[in-house]
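User: Predict the full complex structure for these chains.
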Amino acid sequence: MIAVSSGRKLTKGEATRRAILIAAEQRFAEFGYDAARLEMIAEDVGIRQAGIFYYFPSKLELFQELTGSIHKDLLAFTQSRLSGATDPWERLMLLTEAWLDFMVARPSAARIILRSCANASSNDLYPEAYSSDVLSLLRGIIREGISSGRFTNVDSMYLVNLLSGSILHYVCNAEQLAEEHAYRPEDPVEVGTFKSILRKTARAVLEIDGR
Amino acid sequence: MIAVSSGRKLTKGEATRRAILIAAEQRFAEFGYDAARLEMIAEDVGIRQAGIFYYFPSKLELFQELTGSIHKDLLAFTQSRLSGATDPWERLMLLTEAWLDFMVARPSAARIILRSCANASSNDLYPEAYSSDVLSLLRGIIREGISSGRFTNVDSMYLVNLLSGSILHYVCNAEQLAEEHAYRPEDPVEVGTFKSILRKTARAVLEIDGR
DNA sequence: ATTATCTATAGATCTATAGATAATGC
DNA sequence: ATTATCTATAGATCTATAGATAATGC
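Assistant: Here is the predicted structure of the four-chain assembly.
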């Protein structure tokens, strides 16, 4: 899921830089920005803490580059899934499933996004947050569906809360929410069931007739 | 919403202790456990930072007492709303609306719970998290509904994700999710609309026929 | 030669303790 | 007298800098 780009062999430095970003994603997801220690990240990579500053000017900028690339990747992934589809309902389902697939495949990204949702208004950590590009894609689809008469008139905010909120919780709360055994969010059967539930939900909220 | 208990006049100390808990709820919600400073909390209360330690042995135990009381309050509030109702569907709707009303009335609690959801497995901060009492109430209702044949057979985990996940996002993400103007989660009209959407959602997922 | 990493540590916080002092309420 | 609060600071971290050293790859 992490962009691997050009196949050219990486220099040692490039490899280290990427390893830092990958370790940072894990650690920021696990502990949150404040509690995550540069020491941990460095240890994962196999260098000393101060080595990180050769690649990133500060902890904050490391975090910001990371979250920026998560959003970029999510946007690109979603857009590629939508390409070709024109029907609003179909596009809405493709987008929802893309989000779920992305989060399931990259749970550390999901957890970082969920943490950003818990942070109130914009601050240094989350300037425009989860929002912007990815969300405006969803809003656009809902707007189209409504104006074409396919969807009932409903504020897109509610659907965002329902769909993206529950997707993030599905991926992040396996241990906490499961009755006895924690379910495995990446289990294809589980994912399939959840997709059909999301579909039922959207259909009910938008008052789409059977399909 | 915060328990006011016995009307007896508070001693100065009791008043300060409660003021600390109230300020702590705001600050932990706003910044998260790590970034919240005892200095801020003390300032809100009108004492110096070290004064907090007269009432609480440590920052962690202050936080734990706070989250414990949030869960206790949510449980009591939910149970009082459920009292009398026996029909599973009615109980499910009462519980859902109770959760939403609670979170709307006490958004700082909602944000603290959302933060706890973002924290992976149990740690010092969130021993059994959101879970336990309140969630098992919901699970019990779903189990009853299924065994009585009123609900279709669905894992309660999915409904928890949908309902509680989206409720938390509804309350916490007003600024981030609203298109232009932030919506006001406490606006009764907005709350009413969201309740009807949650109802549609639950009905669709549980395959309850019209009502 | 240039790039990458290390050691050592300065500087900035933040929690928590100790001991002094002020306010409360029987 | 007891309860509540203050001042001052110890002790523990953690990020980030400076300068030295080792590894890389043309």
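Chain A touches chain B through 49 residues (CB under 8 Å).
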